[in-house]
Q: What sequence folds into this?
């Protein structure tokens, strides 16, 4: 171990509200799309309406997702988009994943430098 300050593992920077597979997929879809209709997201993510609603509620309560309700004709619709806080949280989460996936063993104990290596495809949209 080097003589510098102890650096905690980047996994501590992962956001538990984003980290579950459905919420991560939802955040990634919204980061890549901007705004999307609830039904389209449900079909894209291959989850039930109730499961997606539960995950949206967690992200909405965290201030990460904006829920907009309206009508198309006489049919009610719900659209989702990331808030600024949601975009920032997703980018920080993806950065932590990049560091985890590209930092060699033992490198966290060395002086800080930019990690090298491929960026995980799941975080390219951030």
A:
């Amino acid at each position: 171990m080097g003589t510098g300050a102890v650096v905690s593992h980047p996994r501590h920077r992962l956001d538990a509200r984003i980290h579950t597979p459905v919420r991560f997929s939802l955040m990634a879809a919204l980061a890549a799309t901007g705004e999307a209709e609830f039904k389209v997201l449900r079909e894209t993510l291959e989850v039930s309406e109730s499961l997606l609603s539960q995950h949206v509620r967690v992200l909405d309560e965290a201030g990460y997702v904006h829920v907009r309700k309206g009508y198309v004709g006489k049919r009610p619709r719900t659209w989702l988009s990331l808030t600024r806080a949601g975009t920032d949280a997703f980018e920080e989460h993806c950065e932590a994943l990049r560091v985890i996936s590209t930092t060699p063993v033992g490198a966290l104990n060395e002086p800080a430098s930019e990690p090298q290596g491929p960026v995980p495809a799941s975080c390219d949209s951030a």
